[in-house]
Amino acid sequence: MGSVARPAGPLVEQIDPQKDPVGAVQAYRQQQSTDLTDVSRLRAEVLRLTRDKSADNVQQCLVLPLGSKPCGGPAEYINSIN
């Protein structure tokens, strides 16, 4: 299983919104874009790891929640084996 390497410091340098509001908004958007990329990469890895659905018996089968909806609850369910 591969690990996701994270940089030691923040991905975006902190910008004071009082001094540079445009720069702060741009930095925020860049951070959000990076976060979404990380989430997409992690979701793809989870789906790859749960791709093999061969089980010896039904007791090994699992249904797992993945993600979250803005209103609460999981965004989807995935099938996996124990």
Secondary structure blueprint with pairings:
Elements: H1 21-49, E1 61-66, E2 76-81
How would you portray this structure in words?
The chain contains one helix and two strands. By secondary structure, the chain is α+β, with helices and mostly antiparallel strands. It is elongated. The two termini are 16 Å apart.
What is this entry, summarized?
By secondary structure, this protein is of the alpha+beta class.
What keyword list fits this structure?
single chain; 82 residues; alpha+beta; two-stranded antiparallel sheet; 1 helix; 35% helix; elongated
How many helices does DSSP assign?
1
What coarse outline follows from CA principal-axis ratios?
elongated
Distance between the termini: 16 Å
Strand content: 5-15%
Main sheet characteristics: 2 strands, antiparallel
Helix percentage range = 25-40%
Instruction: Give the ordered list of helices and strands.
Output: HEE
Query: What's the gyration radius in Å?
Result: 19 Å
Mean pLDDT across the residues is: 79
Structural class based on helices, strands and sheet pairing: alpha+beta
